[in-house]
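In the previous chapter we treated chains in isolation. Here, by contrast, the input contains four separate entities that must be folded as one system, with a combined length of 706 residues.
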Amino acid sequence: MEQLDERKEIILNAIIQNYLETGEPVGSRTISKSYLNLSSATIRNEMADLEELGYIVQPHTSAGRIPTDMGYRFYVDHLMAEKDKEVSQMQELMFEKTGKMEKLLKQVVKVLANNTQYASMILAPSVISNKVKFVQISNVDDNHVLSVVVMEGNLVKNRVIEVEKPLDNETMLKLNMLLNTNLNGLTVNDINLSLISNMKDQAGVHEEIVEQVLKSVADTITDDEDLEVYTSGATNFFKYPELSDSEKAKDLINAFEEKKPLAEFIQDVENESDETGIQVYIGNDSSIKTMKDCSVVTATYELGEGVKGTIGIIGPKRMDYANVLDNLKNLKSQLEKAVNGSPATDIVDSDSS
Amino acid sequence: MEQLDERKEIILNAIIQNYLETGEPVGSRTISKSYLNLSSATIRNEMADLEELGYIVQPHTSAGRIPTDMGYRFYVDHLMAEKDKEVSQMQELMFEKTGKMEKLLKQVVKVLANNTQYASMILAPSVISNKVKFVQISNVDDNHVLSVVVMEGNLVKNRVIEVEKPLDNETMLKLNMLLNTNLNGLTVNDINLSLISNMKDQAGVHEEIVEQVLKSVADTITDDEDLEVYTSGATNFFKYPELSDSEKAKDLINAFEEKKPLAEFIQDVENESDETGIQVYIGNDSSIKTMKDCSVVTATYELGEGVKGTIGIIGPKRMDYANVLDNLKNLKSQLEKAVNGSPATDIVDSDSS
DNA sequence: TGTTAGCACTCTAATAATTTGAGTGCTAAC
DNA sequence: GTTAGCACTCAAATTATTAGAGTGCTAACA
């Protein structure tokens, strides 16, 4: 596939660059004028070759050329100039320190959407491989027990359990001890029915209610309903003519609203990623049909060993890849820093005396 | 405004009904044929009158008539036939019993969007007037304290507080006692700095850390970030030609994604509501500019004394008002029942032995 | 052998011209 | 008060026309 001589590469690059900017099919004359001192006829010959090789196509006979998926791929892999590191690092934004992961993720995805002007999404760190750090149940009132679970990375999950009567103090203490000793360090996968019945036996309290509560705690941990995909800038699809006709925009925004399919697709991504953790899907590379006219770029972030999430954008194939990659790298590292790296600081602001 | 004789009312009703169904301006002939045995010429005369009175207009000289906002208003207030109660109650759906309010609301709003085919939203019960029911702090690890607050209606809020060192057991116990006795039954508005410093004094522990934790707990309670608007069916805007051109759809979906302006508008609604709790805003009735071509219908639900939220839909002015009102009433009551009324049942399902 | 000027040809997109038909308002008769 | 009839209007759909960007190919040139 690497049978392109230098001139063809230059021309291909010129075509793609130009198309990225204008969105119009680019003709031989444009290239001839602005990039090289070759006549348009010569360029035409080269273009014919590039078309035969599959890097570009004509939307119709008497039009200029636009890149194929393969053309984009070659551009991303070989031609694209990465942005200057120094410039990009400059933009160091401090995310508001917050006790809630959710809030942080929402901030990050908003920044991403703003910076890139593409629809952006972020998948919260998966709990599959995440470990239980702390469990606690308490009586809230006569009919409700609250169960709270803190996972590695300080993800908090909670659930209110409806019960017939409150647990007495002694049982409560026992159960809390039990829960912490048994569940600490386990992952979602480690928690199953036998473990629960095991704990029940250990508890030594033979009430129906104990089993119910234990089950609910297990449920609380395994429940991944609230570990979601956060999105921002869905309406950015309208910015790009190739995606903004009603039908396409509708499908895309819908996929963005549904989030389920998105989440699944992105989850797959996490596995495929290479050392940089960055993936570029062009057109049909991504498995979702509605996204055949889109490119998807994702970056996997890691908040601790095995605690991975994904951040990414969806936009037209005609995308400013360099800028997107730059932003993703940047946010990925800042996100990781915000959670892992930063020194402890006050959370409440200290403007009041 | 009530100077319409019966025949005019019938004709106006016919025009609006027809327009709701077809979306096309309706001409005199259509009315003459299907609704009354009057000639089209007679209908034309009446229409001219109705136009002069402001209930209908012609989009252009040689077109049929469409209702004005005033026409719709008259229809909603006086003409519209409410749906049969029996039929509507039939559709009694059980919402999955869940410990999480958030989940319940998401389910409800999804059902609403599905039933009506309009963009739907639900505003979580406001905490302003909601009371603290239970507070608890605990050491999660050496550097983190978890604060959990349960409000009336079992809304759970939590926050992880970063600290220099864990609180010793004794202090922890003391603080928990203190928090519960001091905060129980208070609303967000009741919680202020003097209360906090008061508590700090009572604690008798003169460490920096105590104040920090107390402040954070207060923050946890007052934080309304996660009491949000949930939406569903934003892409339904595309179903209605009058809203589906790029510009409008974009603005509307954007408003739906932003949620902030929505939330504010809806919050205002809560106050205006009459005994039924239902409000219909037609066109410019709603204060948001982007919604001038829309109607907004909202219902206020109440989960306990003073704990109010709002559920509503946004759609074209040409809307099936009867169906929407019916659905809102229905869901409002079911939502209230799901939280308040229903007898305690197992949360964990009992299919396993 | 690679490059280039030139020309006929193609096809889209924009503009203009034409047609169609639904609907009105008005008048005059019932 | 109601209605038939007719001239008139205007949006929307259809068709024709034009303009222009771009191509492929050929033949000449260095």
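Chain B touches chain A through 51 residues (CB under 8 Å). The domain at 129-223 of chain B is CATH 3.30.390.60 (Enolase-like; domain 1). Compare these points with the single-chain example from earlier in the chapter.
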